[in-house]
Design a protein that fits this description.
Helix content is 41%, strand content 16%. It is an alpha/beta fold. The protein has two domains: 174 residues, Rossmann fold, CATH 3.40.50.2000; 173 residues, Rossmann fold (3-Layer(aba) Sandwich). Helix 12 links the parallel strand 9 and strand 10. Helix 10 packs across helix 11 and helix 13 packs parallel to helix 15. It is elongated, with a radius of gyration of 26 Å.
């Protein structure tokens, strides 16, 4: 590449790891990349001396050939693909302008004094970054914010050619650096360890407790047998799940308890665990309490989260889905259940499954069907099971 001519780099965001919403909005990276490539293609025609670089995320599975095909389809022939997935230092040193989507490489580029174009198209990408902790870059930061497809090309041109734009970015740079790096005193590790200990001792102060699992409530109610006359709902979210059950079983006596440990002497037809069964040793404690509570004639309704949805989201991008590992061990890095794992952990608690309901991920299912109908089978966020004590 010629360092005397402008080099514009696009650092591709890693699919769906940002928020819960992003796991069900699988196409936003694909769509953003397509529109950036279209802008690059038009810029290459307007500015034959400009050079364009695509940098895949180090964790992404898309190979250089796939990116090259996408670039060619967009009309971009002059492009260099960083298939070695170089270090951030190399990428920032190489680029004259960094195009990204809420990326740490954007921060590195700001530190290096390079213009940054932050592309988050409101039409399909806004909610991905405005859930939870919110976006990486704020309005006042030293980046050019692009919210529409039409704005990508002009933003990049301004970053390369417009002195007023570059002056504005440099003026905002100290404030942005201070926000991201406000303590450069050699004590970062000390502060990190202190905060970690504080969080461990006073977790609720930093993370609001979860009191409801609304995605499971309709299935918990649906799974409750119509013949049940006395129903006990236990768990942190007992009130909300109990209300859902009352709506569909108005003739039953529905009681609730937030403390699972206090129900061991309960006499009920059905015990409903309002909270998803944890993927840990605590699961066997829960099921032991449940087994005592239902006796020999009662039944259990419980929810389990599936660990395969994020794996499946990866698979949609690379069409390489494989069945989750069987057993109670995690099916993916987020540490939840596989379908076989649900059956196994229930059997350890002396239960056997009577019926299973799937919590379907509609957005993931639609994306999977568009890529490969065989992938739709993995578009499951969890299960609700009706289980009974094992016979014999």
């Amino acid at each position: 590449m010629n360092p005397e001519q402008p080099i514009v780099m696009y650092a591709i965001t890693y699919t769906h790891r940002f928020s819960k919403i992003s796991t069900t909005t699988l196409d936003y990276v694909k769509q953003t990349t397509a529109f950036v490539l279209q802008a690059f293609a038009e810029l290459s025609r307007r500015h034959p001396d400009w050079q364009f670089v695509l940098r895949p995320h180090p964790h992404d599975m898309l190979g250089p050939n796939t990116l090259r095909e996408q670039a060619s389809a967009a009309g971009l022939e002059r492009v260099w693909i960083d298939d070695k997935k170089s270090t951030p230092l190399f990428a920032v040193t190489l680029a004259d302008v960094m195009v990204c989507t809420q990326s740490n490489l954007g921060i590195e580029a700001i530190l290096a004094g390079k213009p940054v174009v932050n592309v988050v198209i409101d039409e399909f990408g806004h909610d991905v970054f405005y859930e939870g902790l919110g976006p990486l870059f704020l309005e006042e930061d030293a980046v050019i914010h692009v919210r529409t497809v039409e704005g990508i090309l002009s933003a990049i041109e301004a970053a390369v050619e417009d002195p007023a734009t570059r002056k504005r970015l440099l003026k905002a740079r100290p404030g942005t650096i201070e926000r991201f790096h406000y303590k450069l005193d050699g004590k970062a590790m000390e502060r990190f360890c202190t905060l970690a200990l504080e969080i461990a001792e006073d977790y609720a102060r930093y993370v609001p407790p979860i009191t409801r699992f609304p995605e499971f409530e309709p299935l918990l109610a649906q799974a409750t047998p119509s013949s049940a006359r006395r129903i006990l709902v236990a768990g942190i979210a007992a009130k909300h799940a109990a209300d859902a059950v009352r709506r569909v079983r108005p003739g039953a006596l529905v009681e609730e308890s937030r403390d699972l440990a206090r129900i061991t002497n309960a006499q009920c037809d059905v015990l409903i665990l309002s909270d998803p069964v944890p993927h840990s040793e605590e699961a066997e404690v829960w099921l032991g309490i449940a087994r005592t509570a239902v006796g020999e004639t009662g039944e259990l309704v419980a929810a389990f989260r599936h660990g395969g949805s994020i794996d499946a989201a990866d698979a949609v991008a690379r069409a390489a889905w494989a069945p989750a590992n069987s057993g109670v061990d995690s099916a993916c890095p987020v540490g939840e259940y596989s379908r076989n794992g649900v059956e196994l952990v229930l059997s350890r608690g002396d239960f056997e499954i009577q019926q299973v309901w799937e919590l379907r991920n509609a957005a993931l299912e639609a994306s999977a069907m568009a890529e490969n109908p065989a992938l739709a089978r993995c578009a499951v966020d969890g299960w609700v099971v009706l289980a009974a004590p094992r016979r014999g």
